[in-house]
Design brief:
The complex is a heterodimer of chains A (555) and B (103). In chain A, 75% of the residues lie in helices and 0% in strands. Chain A is mostly helical. Chain A is elongated. Chain A starts with 7 loop residues before the first helix and ends with a helix. With 103 residues, chain B is mostly helical. In chain B, 49% of the residues lie in helices and 12% in strands. Chain B has helices at residues 9-20, 28-35, 39-52, 77-92, and strands spanning 26-27, 55-59, 71-75. Chain B has a 3-stranded antiparallel β-sheet. In chain B, helix 1 crosses helix 4 (77-92). The longest helix of chain B is centred in the last third of the chain and has 16 residues, at 77-92. Chain B is elongated, with a radius of gyration of 14 Å. Classes of the chains: A mainly alpha (555), B mainly alpha (103). Chain A binds chain B through residues 1, 28, 30-31, 33-38, 40-42, 50-51, 53-55, 57-58, 61, and chain B through 27-29, 32, 38-44, 46-47, 60, 66-71.
Chain lengths: 555, 103
């Protein structure tokens, strides 16, 4: 013993070698002991440490070599490989080595870490939640908000406000965005913050919007809706809506201003533009979150507009019958004009169709007015206009419904393929994990089974990884068209059509969500019955086979 | 014996030390001192030589109480012949020159 034991370095060196020896693989342990024995001859503490460092290196190499040896054996074998097939009665093992299995699994898993893989996984997982935002989505939006706050990026904050699932937080973000850039005040009106009721303080925010965009009917309509919704929380009939609202002076005032305004814009294009911009900045954001942002786009309560229009038509007819035709015409003109503005190209299809419906109400009012005051030639003229309007309305409905059904039909099978390949990949991954777990645990607990269970585990570990790789590839391949739509939406300047396409395709994806299938009790019972029936069949067949086997061996 | 060893300069230095006193049993630390090889380099070479059958090993017989037995190494008969042949080839190709002529 030359090295002074009191030296800290020597003690560290010795302790580390002793520790390494405790875990040193058996087949090379003697070399570790040899290294340790030599340390007794080293007098210099630094030399002892250097010697021990070499020993640790050798230990790591020995461990790696053993792991590599272990990887070269099939799953279910021990470190020494002693439990390899022992003849006809020996346990079964997979045909491939652990290394082969690991390489194939790694290749499959790598696919999910590619940008398209991450997007596909995120989208399908969100569809399985029916696009209800997850806590991860909230965290992502919080990150965007925090970054935007730091950079004083009002548009990014507005994007957060339009997409955030919780209304309270969304309003906070909206307030911050508007404080930084008052021109974004429209975000107060362009989404439903609280459904069906908005917060009482919405009134103040909407007042800001009305004063910044005083000629926009939308701002007044939304204010009237917030006012009127509390009175018509659940009415189903238009008649009862009219009766409930006509006594509300504030509502009548807002509606009156809306019908007199010279412009109508529900800010749908600005909303789309902001969503596109936000998604472009954060491409990793769940497409479901983006679609939900668009879903939340507010349109005025059409039932309330119709109710007010009916009140105004009746008023016009009453005035008209008192021979004050000019005033009656002005009232009806306001109705048809608002309808025409709403039917313009900037809004959502529902707004456009509602606009045509409003025009129809106005024109019908005109027809009744002229009929009542004995001006049949004018009535005829209006009748022709009504005919044209009906044709236009039908054309628009058919065009929109046709476009939508073509889109949905074309997308339906793609969505189905995507969902099936996703489910298959998940099931295969679970099966392979269970198979590997069973075999490796079997090795630890000396499971030398030769029965069906072990046979299944071996086959799953043999063919499962390859099938998993193939299904993962199919999953990404089937996601490609959807990824293209997302990319198109993000890259286009004119986003209206892309927004509608994205909106409906995400809708279909949510509709084909296989998890929702199991939400229905009928399907739950169906699956349970099928599984129990399958188990019953297996038990009966197995019993028959065994009985035949016993009979044949005892004959 | 079928394993073909890669004769690096470090391996040649070790073989040089071992062939210097072929019948003598060497221990690891002395070999390290003699060749200047660190333990992390020396022992993998010793392990490979043993696996190839060129090196024989034994544990120290007389154990000093409180001290673990040491491990000794020397070339086998085949090993010596092989080393001499390799040295000759190395010298001819001027790849490496032994410290002293042993061939």
């Amino acid at each position: 013993m030359n090295a002074p034991r009191t030296s800290l370095l020597t003690r560290v060196a010795l302790s580390s070698m002793v520790l390494a020896l405790r875990f040193w693989p058996e087949n090379t342990r003697q070399w570790g002991l040899a290294l340790l024995a030599e340390m007794e001859e080293i007098s210099e503490p630094a030399g002892a440490l250097n010697w021990a460092a070499g020993g640790i290196l050798l230990f790591l190499r020995a461990v790696l070599a053993q792991i590599f040896e272990w990887m070269r054996l099939p799953a279910g074998t021990g470190f020494s490989g002693a439990a390899l097939p022992g003849g006809v009665n020996g346990p079964r093992f997979p045909k491939h080595s652990r290394l082969t299995t690991a390489v194939i699994l790694l290749a499959a898993v790598t696919l999910f870490f590619l940008p398209i893989g991450r997007e596909a996984t995120g989208t399908v997982r969100a569809s399985w939640r029916s696009f209800i935002p997850s806590s991860g989505d909230r965290r992502e939006l919080e990150k965007i908000a925090a970054k935007a706050e730091k950079e004083k990026d009002a548009r990014a904050l507005a994007f957060g406000a339009l997409s955030y699932p919780d209304s309270g937080r969304a309003l906070e973000l909206a307030d911050r965005a508007v404080a930084l850039d008052p021109s974004l005040v429209w975000i107060y009106a362009s989404r439903y913050y609280h459904v069906p009721l908005d917060l009482p303080q919405s009134g103040e925010r909407l007042k800001q919007l009305r004063s910044s965009d005083p000629e926009n009917a939308f701002a007044y309509l939304v204010s009237a809706n917030v006012e009127g919704t509390s009175r018509t929380a659940t009415p189903l009939r238009l008649q009862s809506t009219s009766e409930a609202l006509r006594s509300d002076g504030e509502w009548m005032k807002e509606m009156d201003q809306a019908f007199r305004a010279t412009n109508y814009d529900s800010y749908f294009r600005q909303h789309e533009e902001l969503v596109r911009e936000g998604w472009k900045k954060t491409p990793g954001l769940s497409p479901g979150l983006v679609a939900i942002g668009l879903w939340r786009h507010r349109i005025p309560d059409l039932r309330q507009i119709q109710a007010y229009a009916d009140l105004r038509v009746n008023e016009a007819l009453r005035i008209g019958s008192a021979r004050n035709v000019k005033e009656a015409e002005t009232i009806l003109e306001e109705i048809t004009k608002l309808g025409r503005r709403m039917a313009g190209v900037g809004g959502t299809p529902i707004e456009q169709l509602s606009g045509l419906g409003l025009m129809q109400r106005g024109l019908e009012g005109f027809k009744k007015l002229y009929g009542g005051i004995g001006r049949p030639e004018k009535g005829k003229e209006i009748g022709a206009q009504l005919q044209e309007l009906e044709t236009e309305k039908n054309e628009r409905i058919q065009s929109y419904m046709g476009w939508k059904s073509d889109l949905l039909r074309a997308f339906q099978w793609k969505a189905n393929v995507l969902q099936v390949s996703a489910i298959l990949s998940l099931l295969l991954a679970i099966a392979v994990a269970l198979g590997l777990f069973a075999l490796e645990m079997g090795a630890a607990f000396r499971w030398k089974g030769t029965g069906t269970g072990r046979w299944i585990a071996c086959r799953v570990v043999d063919y499962g990884p390859l099938l998993f790789l193939a299904s993962s590839f199919a999953f990404l391949w089937s996601f490609r068209p959807i990824a293209e739509i997302f990319a198109q939406y993000r890259s286009k300047e004119e986003t209206h059509t892309e927004a509608m396409r994205l909106f409906w395709q995400v809708f279909v994806l949510g509709d084909t969500n296989p998890v929702s299938y199991f939400n229905e009790p009928y399907h739950q019972w169906l699956v349970l019955t099928v599984v129990l029936a399958a188990i019953g069949v297996v038990v009966v067949v197995r019993g028959i086979v065994r009985q035949n086997y016993v009979a044949s061996t005892t004959r | 014996m079928g394993i073909r060893l890669r004769l690096s300069k470090q391996t040649l230095a070790l073989l040089d030390a071992l062939i210097d006193q072929p019948s003598h049993w060497h221990h690891g630390y002395a070999l390290s001192q003699q060749t200047g090889l660190a333990s992390g380099t020396l022992y993998p070479i010793l392990m490979r030589l043993e696996k190839s059958g060129w090196l024989e090993t034994r544990w120290e017989d007389a154990v000093v109480p409180g001290r673990p037995p040491r491990h000794f190494y020397r070339l086998t008969g085949n090993g010596r012949e092989w080393v001499r042949a390799e040295f000759r080839a190395a010298r001819e190709s001027k790849f490496w020159k032994p410290a002293q002529s042993k061939v």
